[in-house]
Design brief:
Elements: H1 2-20, E1 27-36, E2 43-52, E3 61-65, E4 71-76, E5 79-82, E6 94-98, E7 101-109, E8 113-116, E9 128-132, E10 140-150, H2 157-177
Helix pairs in contact: 1-2
């Protein structure tokens, strides 16, 4: 009985420590909307992207790509596009940051669209939406803007497991006391 109580207390302490310690890395989720106001396909289009922020330093110019867990899902004109749809996959798409603040996506789908800041510098993300006739970025026309909104971060699996173990142990201890 005493051993079970000590194990239960230890499990609770470990779970509390796991929750109290801020996690360094997390999967960060963003939703985005495209507001195309001109061109052949005006309208609103929606998507999302996710990345692992563990390598972000938070100073200067930084980019994260597919190797950092960047994944994209974008519904445009009834077709679902992913990060693998990018013309330069797997070296692109990327998300860009300045001093830890998100600038936006750089995402090019040949013969469809480009999301970024400037077609001349396609490796920097931004919030402009361009229609594109080919992979030639000189054939782009800005037709709209992109707005990003941060979603809830995904909890680390170890934190969730620690909370679950502590809860079960707490219930077992409570049950044995009765």
């Amino acid at each position: 009985m005493k051993l079970a109580k000590n194990i239960g207390i230890a499990a609770i302490v470990i779970a509390v420590a796991a929750v109290a310690k801020p996690t360094q890395a997390a999967l960060v989720n963003y939703g985005f909307s495209v507001n195309a106001t001109s061109g052949d396909n005006p309208g609103q289009y929606f998507g999302s992207f996710q990345y692992d922020d563990s390598t972000l330093i938070g100073t200067g110019e930084e980019t994260l790509g597919v190797s950092n867990g960047l994944s994209i899902l974008f519904d445009y004109l009834g077709t679902q596009y992913t990060e693998a749809s990018d013309f330069d996959y797997p070296s692109s798409p990327v998300v860009s940051f300045t001093n830890g603040n998100l600038l936006g996506l750089s995402y090019l789908v040949e013969d469809q669209f480009f999301i970024g800041n400037d077609p001349v510098n396609p490796n920097t993300g931004g919030t402009k939406f361009y229609s594109i006739l080919s992979a030639d970025l000189l054939s782009t026309t800005q037709v709209g803007t992109v707005s990003n909104s941060k979603s809830q971060s995904v909890a680390e699996p170890m934190t969730v497991a620690g909370i679950a173990i502590a809860g079960v142990m707490g219930l077992c201890l409570r049950r044995k006391k009765k």
